[in-house]
Amino acid sequence: MKLDIIILSVLEKGDRTGYSLMKFIKDDMGWKPSPGSMYPSLKSLLEKKYVTVLKRENKKIYTITEDGKKVLGEFKKGKDIYLNEVKRNMSIFNHVCDSKEIKIISDMLDKIKDSDGLLKLFNKDFIEFKMEIIKKALNPKTRDRLKLFIKKSLMELRKIE
Hints:
The protein is mainly alpha-helical. The protein is built from seven helices and two strands; from the N terminus they run αααββαααα. The protein has helices spanning 2-13, 18-29, 35-47, 66-88, 99-114, 123-138, 143-159, and strands at 51-56, 59-64. It has a two-stranded antiparallel ribbon.
């Protein structure tokens, strides 16, 4: 389903071939779906009538349908729910961060929520980062090192201009 949503979001911007979709996703997200995952996803989207296909000069051009736009719209609404869930989970950081650090992270999540499209730039890495922090925070043996890592990371982030 994840690739389906990515495909729909790219097609919302304009019609594309399967190859063009793979290239755009690679250029935009730094990850290139294989033909073995792209074409089954396109077939599934066609079966669900979320996309249509038109053959032009021996190429298949995919277009998002109104139903596809509705599904994509519902998914985008879910983004806010996901970000709110992340913020609720911030309570775990009370054990490893001080209130200033928690406020910085919370503010960052608000900015991501408010900036349409920004999250997709690092969504996979952001999710993995969050999960690693939570795992380390739950382990009493790694909490002190995690707190130091977060402080150092924040100092480095502040240096980026």
